[in-house]
Amino acid sequence: MMKLKEIRIKRGMTQEELAEKAKISRATLSKIENGKVKLTDFFLADTIAAILGVPVEVLVPEFLEKRHSPLFRKEDAKL
After folding, report:
1. Angle value at C-alpha 5, between 2 and 16, nearest 5 degrees
2. pLDDT computed for residue 51 by the predictor
3. Which residue of 17, 37, 58, 71 pairs with 54 in a disulfide if CB–CB is 3.0 to 4.6 A?
4. Chain mean position to CA 34
5. CATH 1.10.260.40 matches 4-77
6. What is the largest CA-CA distance in the chain?
């Protein structure tokens, strides 16, 4: 799995640019990239993944397991 920071750098984006597009602070993004804050919010993870052009599961593999859970509703996947 590629880490968020690696993907961001490969896309030629600064922390400031990604944070602005994701509507979070640069400090928050830095904490996520450095593992000080875990990316557990699906909608934020999905937003960041979309900005970077990768599936959300690349950033947070646990979300792949949740999508295959019988408790995961199809309508939630479309949000």
Report:
1. 150
2. 98
3. 58
4. 13
5. yes
6. 38
Confidence of residue 62 (pLDDT cuts 50, 70, 90): confident
Where does residue 72 fall: left (phi above 0), alpha (psi -120 to 50 degrees), or beta otherwise?
Answer: beta
| Residue type (1 letter), 5 | K
d(CA 29, CA 19): 6
**Tokens read off for 23:** 């509507």
The full set of domain ranges for the chain reads 4-77
* Confidence band for 71, pLDDT divided at 50, 70 and 90: low
pLDDT classification of 19: cutoffs 50, 70, 90:
very high
Question: Does the pLDDT at position 27 exceed 90?
Answer: yes
Residue 1 pLDDT = 39
> Please, how many CA atoms are within 13 Å of residue 6, restricted to the half-sphere of its CB?
6
